[in-house]
Structure formats: structure tokens, C-alpha cells
Amino acid sequence: MEQRLSCRVIGPLELEVDGAALALNGVQARRLLAALVLAEGRPVSDPELADLMWPNGWPENARKALRVLVWRLRTALGAAGERLERTPSGYCFAVPTDHQQFADLVASGLYRLSIRDAIGAIQDLEAALELWRGEPWQDLAGSPAVVGARTRLVELHELALEEVEAARLAFGNPWVALRSLTRLVADSPYRERRWELLALAYLETGQPERAAAELRRFRALLADQLGLDPGPALVALERRLGPPPQAPRPRPAAWRWR
């Protein structure tokens, strides 16, 4: 009976065989597994693997050392080791991962939000966020391929954090969204979408003055720190809220005849 494999790369690296965690001892064994999983089933050439395994320079007899590490990983996998294949283009290891599942759930949540299925969007985006255990690909150094994969997942995570609150607003849960968005804005004050949703949450909770004040605060932040203006979505929301209230002019002092 074929064994079920799964790997987690969002946060600490974990490999499971038939639902049981498989211990991987040593930095190099973990790097090898992470490098193979990064390829998402594509064969990885020996030089490409060596660059990921030894980012500060290859050791002597790097190819031999790589073959030894592959043999050790196959041995640790047991019967599932036959899935780590040697092809003419390099080593190949196809295994389901949490980062694939995460990306699929985020995409599904965004689609459901676009068709106004707020409940479905909340379910998918919350399921995606539950998979997030920390920075992806922690065992690999910052090569261009790793940085690109890591950055994509981090951006999807930020997007999921924002759009699950948009779904809660669409579902009619503005007070819950307001609490989360206040924290999200504090965590990443330059992400414009968060300010837009925060203003909408204040509007939905009957606080239009506070909504306008938050947009003014963001406009001032952008101007002072980056020399920029808000984007079209926030400008449209500012217009919807109207101009800021004018302070009353002081009345001139009345003449007094002596």
C-alpha cells in the first residue's frame, strides 16, 4: 500500500509519512529536503542543489557529498524513498506541501469574495491562515529562487489577513473586523488596503467622523514619510466621506462705547 507523504515549509520544516512526523537530523538533511520541495516536483540539477545546500561555497567533492545526503534521505524515508528519483535533469521529489495548499486556499477565498460569497471566503481564508506557522523556507539561505518563493508566500499571507476582514465586513461583522484592522494597521502602517478597510469598518459601525480622521492620518503619514499621495481607492473613499469639518471662525469682538 502506497505511503502518504506531506511536507510543511511554512514555518519549521516538517515531513510526515502516513500522518506520523519523520525526524530529520542535521542541517544538511533539512536543507536537501527543503531544496527538493522548493522545486515543486521539477527535477533539480546537481549544481542548483549544491548552491542551495552550501550557499557559502561548495565543499570539495560536492557531488559525492550530495549523493551521500540523498542516500541518507532515501533511507530515512523508508519505503517512500523510491519517490526521490534520479532523472537525467537531476533529483526529483514530488510531495504535497502546505505552501501549495495555502496558495490554493487564498486564491479560492479571493474568488469567493469576488462573487460575494462572504461566508465561503471567510472559511477559505481562515483555513489558509491556520496553516501559517512562521517564515517559509527557514532552512534555506537567501538565494534569488528562495527569496522569490518566500516573498510570494509572505505577500499572500498579508493579503489573506486583509481580505478575511473584507469578507467579515461583507458578511456584516464590522465590530469584529474593526478590532482586527486596528491591529493590522499598527503592524503594517504603509499597506493602503488596511486603511481603506479600517475606514469602511468605522463607517459600518456608525462612526463616519472617525473614518474620515483615519484617512487624513494615513494621508499625512504618506506625505511626511514617503512624499506620496493615497491611491484611487482611498481618494474615492475620501470624496465619499466629504471634506473635513471647518473649524468655526472666531467672532469679532463687539465695539464698546465708553
Order of helices and strands: EEEHHHEEHHHHHHH
CATH domain class of the largest domain: Mainly Alpha
Residue fraction in strands? 5-15%
Q: How many distinct beta strands?
A: 5
Number of domains: 3
Poorly predicted segments: none
Distance between the termini: 109 Å
Give the full name of the CATH homologous superfamily of the largest domain.
Winged helix-like DNA-binding domain superfamily/Winged helix DNA-binding domain
Number of DSSP helical runs: 10
Q: Label the structural class.
A: mainly alpha
Summarize the biggest pleated sheet: 3 strands, antiparallel
Principal-axes shape call: elongated
What is Rg? 26 Å
Fraction of helical residues: 55-70%
CATH topology term of the largest domain: Arc Repressor Mutant, subunit A
Strand order of the largest sheet: 1-2-3
pLDDT averaged residue by residue:
91
Q: Identify the CATH architecture of the largest domain.
A: Orthogonal Bundle
Region (Disordered): 239-258
Family: Belongs to the AfsR/DnrI/RedD regulatory family.
Domain Bacterial transcriptional activator: 97-242
Pfam family, one: Trans_reg_C
